[in-house]
């Protein structure tokens, strides 16, 4: 009975040791293509744009990358995991910032529910010039390099 208990304790300790050693590796294995860090800023007529979605669309239809601007207009791109950058290559860049237009008041929503009517989704309004929001019309084109600085500033007019 006592040796059975020792065997269970040994097995438990071996399992914990293995789990800790696997979890403590300096970098997780990553068999995805190498990415390059990409940063930049988005301004509209010279003023920083907060909460804009910036998207790099790969010209060769490979994996693109996305980012979200901060209050100062800065962004860092993500392809697979937060902040990992973009694959080297050519991209068309789109920038979009939407504002939710005021919808129904809470009172109006309750009234519609009582009447058994569906509550309409709130409408959004695009704040960026239309040409910058679509990959087919955006004039913004960049090349991300494997080596070197990949910092891009976009001043939308």
UniProtKB/TrEMBL annotation:
Comp. bias regions, Basic and acidic residues: 105-114, 123-133
Note down the stretches annotated as region Disordered: 105-139
Q: Which residues, if any, are the signal sequence?
A: 1-19
The UniProt keyword set, sorted, is: Signal
Keyword presence, Signal: yes
Read off the lineage from the record: Bacteria, Pseudomonadati, Planctomycetota, Planctomycetia, Pirellulales
Q: Does the keyword Transcription regulation apply?
A: no
User: What is the designated name of this protein?
Assistant: Carboxypeptidase regulatory-like domain-containing protein
């Amino acid at each position: 009975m006592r040796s059975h208990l020792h065997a269970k304790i040994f097995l438990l300790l071996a399992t914990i040791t293995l789990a800790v050693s696997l979890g403590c590796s300096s970098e997780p294995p990553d068999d995805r293509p190498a990415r390059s860090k990409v940063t930049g800023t988005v301004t509209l007529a010279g003023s920083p744009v907060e909460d804009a979605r910036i998207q790099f669309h790969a010209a060769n239809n490979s994996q693109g990358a996305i980012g979200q601007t901060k209050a100062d207009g800065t962004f860092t791109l993500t392809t697979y995991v937060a902040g990992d950058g973009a694959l080297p290559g050519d991209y068309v860049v789109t920038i979009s910032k939407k504002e939710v237009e005021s919808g129904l008041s809470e009172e109006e929503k309750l009234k519609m529910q009582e009447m058994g009517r569906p509550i309409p989704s709130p409408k959004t309004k695009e704040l960026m010039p239309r040409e910058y929001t679509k990959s087919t019309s955006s004039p913004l084109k960049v090349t991300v390099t494997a080596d070197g600085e990949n910092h891009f500033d976009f001043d939308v007019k």
